[in-house]
Write a structure and sequence with these properties.
Aminopeptidase, about 40% helix, alpha+beta, globular
Length: about 190
Amino acid sequence: MKDLIEKLRKGVEIEDGKILKAEVKGGRFAQELNLDLFLEGRLLLHAKLFLGREHYRDWIELFGLSRDIYGTELEGRILDLFSPHTGRLFIEYFEDLKTAEELKKGIPPALSRLGFELAKRGFTYVRDWYIPEGLMEGGHKLQGEKTESQDVQEKRFKRLEEDLEEFLKKSEDEELKKKALERFKILESVWRKG
């Protein structure tokens, strides 16, 4: 993850020659860093990086994204930039109205608009959550988890298939059911490659 931090400090070309650059600040403890990410001087989002410690795994959290980033090519580039550097990624979806709407209708998190973006990038477990922590928890977010184990990945895929079947039985939104099936078929081809 340290190479990602250095890359962002220097600046990364992200779209049309524009540079994504981070201001890096210390966190609450030595293994935590806070990043403010700017594109051509415009604040895009905040990131919190935990570098890991002893038996605690590293993670990255992206939050404070402006509404106009969700569902764009820029969102994809940002996810592509961060995804390879962690096995655990949290991303706030408070301003992502499409994802919030789909989750409210009961779609499995990995098949929601934003969850699908995580799942395509190798996060085979996607969870929707919000845990109150005395005003330190942030907003509603999706948590993506990767695994190196083919057995675990297969179990996760089977669970997603069961969750999809349950959603298809309960949902009355035909358009969302169609999207869920399409996304599932794409994930099936991606996840079962390995």
